Amino acid sequence: MKKIYLLTLSTLTFFSSIKAQSPCATGRYASDTFTSVSTSSVAYGSNVGAGSTVPQTLTMDIYQPTGDAETKRPLIIWAHGGSFQTGSSADGDVVALSQAFAKKGYVCASINYRLGFFPLDSVNAIKAVLRAVQDMKASVRFFYKDKLTTDSYKIDTNNIFIGGSSAGAITALHMAYLDKSCEINYYISPSVLSSLGGMEGYSGNQCYSSKVKGVINLCGAIGRYGWIEPGDVPFCSMHGTIDGTVKYNRGIVNPGVPILLLDGSRMLKEHANAIGINNPFYTWYGKNHVPYATSTQYMDTTISFVRDFLISRLGCTDAALLPENTPAQTATLYAFTTCTVNVPFNCSSAVSVQELSQNAVISEVYPNPSESNMTIVFANKNTSHHIELFDVTGKLISSESTENAQFIIQKNNLSIGLYFLKVTNKTGETTTQKVIFK
User: Fold this and answer.
1) Residue range(s) occupied by CATH 3.40.50.1820 in the chain
2) Does domain 25-314 fall into CATH 3.40.50.1820?
3) What is the rounded CA–CA span in Å between residue 108 and residue 61?
4) I want to staple 287 with a disulfide (CB 3.0 to 4.6 A). Which of 51, 168, 240, 312 is the partner?
5) Is 280 helix (H, G, I), strand (E, B) or coil?
């Protein structure tokens, strides 16, 4: 009996030690465990860009370790730099980061987001940031949707990270911490926010989660450090002290033209420390903007520091490759009052990507965009149809039915902007289409 007890105890001890193993116990996530990476491109949504009335297809490049059998993998979504005017998912720095972390066992996605704004001023700049944030949210929702449907990418949705370089880091920070409509109303009015699609936007995969585990800030900044509040997700930052584009401390973002006053990584460090949010910070002393973009040495430094942050969030206990150093300069925090008003996103009436992809009910809508009325031509002219029009917040604007082969939407007093036309025929088939009145 005693021998049986000892065998049972040793067995329990063995399995207990297996269960308690760090996710990095086999080297995965903490070091390179794969030698090759596969890359594919996929559309994750669409939306109307700045100064355009034509929806733009949004794509991303997905990097996966070749031959990986793991079924719950952490994901990093990267956004490129380029001052919200240029750049793509194929930019060298985000490609290098994606390949490096895919070799460690992560899945990485490098996204394209809507670019461009004019004139170059603070109001249009914040609109550009909001469009990029909406697109990044749609890319996160894409993977939640995938997990709940086909599970093609084998993502652990409890471990989704977002990050970026320069404008991409600004995008990631704002996605994570600009989470109340009253915050952005400091820059733009509620009506303008509504016309742009609200805080969530309609870039795709509506009503799926956009929750993330952490943020990677590489030479980025945020509108107000106070948007980061107690209980928010941790972040890591890397920034050069003489960054002339996105300031290390607090200053005007200047990609050639002074645009927007933002709080840089040094300010975020000071504030996050004060409210108890984990935020490892590495300073590149005497370095300018994104030094890793043109230097293998600095790219290696970046990968090491980001690796340390990620494995700590995964619960690994491996020693740090590059501990944080001492910040330069003094960060002087200013008085900040947190606002509380938020306009919630209405999922009960929001259109979905699945609906947007169906075209069995509507044959044609013209003219679209339109300055006056708009005509719907039905695919099946021998059945009745129910026509609903929603604004960008998901609010129902009109609801009518017809037995005719065509239907005219009266513009009347409709505001200029994007709307969603939902048509259901007698058999229950539904199509939802974006329409624009100008």
Assistant:
1) 25-314
2) yes
3) 8
4) 240
5) coil
DSSP letters for 69-130: --SSEEEEEEE--STTTS--TT-HHHHHHHHHHHTTT-EEEEE------SS-SHHHHHHHHH
What are phi and psi for residue 385, nearest 5 degrees?
Answer: -140, 145
Q: Break the chain down into helix, strand, coil percent, rounded to 5.
A: 25, 25, 45
Which CATH class for the 353-437 domain? mainly beta
Q: How many Cβ atoms from other residues are within 10 Å of residue 306's Cβ?
A: 25
Confidence of residue 13 (pLDDT cuts 50, 70, 90): very low
Who's near 178: CB < 8 A, 6+ residues apart? Answer: 133, 184, 199, 222, 223, 227
Residue ranges of the alpha helices (H) in 325-416? 353-356
What would the pLDDT profile of 172-203 be if each residue is shown by its tens digit? 999 999 999 999 988 899 888 988 888 999 89
- Give ranges for CATH 2.60.40.1220 in the chain: 353-437
Q: Per residue in 344-396, pLDDT tens? A: 776 655 554 444 444 568 888 888 878 889 999 998 888 999 999 887 666 78
Whole-angstrom distance, CA of residue 378 vs CA of residue 57: 25
